[in-house]
Amino acid sequence: xxxxxxxxxxxxxxxxxxxxxxxxxxxxxxxxxxxxxxxxxxxxxxxxxxxxxxxxxxxxxxxxxxxxxxxxxxxxxxxxxxxxxxxxxxxxxxxxxxxxxxxxxxxxxxxxxxxxxxxxxxxxxxxxxxxxxxxxxxxxxxxxxxxxxxxxxxxxxxxxxxxxxxxxxxxxxxxxxxxxxxxxxxxxxxxxxxxxxxxxxxxxxxxxxxxxxxxxxxxxxxxxxxxxxxxxxxxxxxxxxxxxxxxxxxxxxxxxxxxxxxxxxxxxxxxxxxxxxxxxxxxxxxxxxxxxxxxxxxxxxxxxxxxxx
Length: 309
Description:
The protein is of the alpha/beta class. It has one domain: Ribokinase (UDP-N-acetylmuramoyl-L-alanine:D-glutamate ligase, 3-Layer(aba) Sandwich). The chain contains 9 helices and 13 strands. The strands form 2 sheets. It has a 9-stranded mixed β-sheet, sandwiched between helices. It has a 4-stranded mixed β-sheet with strand order 3-2-6-7. Helix 1 packs across helix 7 (about 245-255) and helix 7 (about 245-255) packs antiparallel against helix 8. This is Adenosine kinase. Keywords: Kinase, Transferase.
């Protein structure tokens, strides 16, 4: 019997307050008049879920979410987009952050450390039940999700994760880096991206490591070969980089689950990431399947991401 869920997304639910600022870094001043301050649901797990769902995959998102206004925003986002969401109580409150966004689309995120520090784990029985119905799991790097990794492995799922701005040295990230089949990481804090990518493969179980590099594209390590992936041309002016890495991962996984070669998957990721940069930070949106395939030069069809891997 085929799985009911293509991708089980664990963690990464939360709310961002977007503040448009005149420049980054922001010079010290007593006060600023800014174009906009807006709070909306959407952090890494939410964006991954939305991106995969927009590409036609069957997605289920699970996380700890607070019984608060911010949690209501997260639940409403999933309900409105038709993305199944399973939540468990988060006593410290829903994760939240403030994103400062400059006019060139760059952003700086400030995360509230009072949220989620001691919460968890995700309900083990629920994780096992959802894993049994899934093909693949994408795991956010929060503490409760790390505890769920053994259960995902026992159910035979392939796993992906995004290490975000890992410096290549913090041992906390190694739990995720060394137990995933597909690893995404940003080059932002890496002194030697290639060395870190090869270390992930040597010490872990990764088949593929992708290091995203913003306007410089990305780097793909697979089969021992490192390849540069060119950035895709955005379909509209770049206004914000928030969620671009999540969009890249969603595009890549769409191709990977359809059995596409890694370079084609990376091309899908580049297209999805470029699209995300054209979406204002106050809006939650993702590229659809037809637009992705057209921009990647695939015409009207590609392998079906359901049931092929």
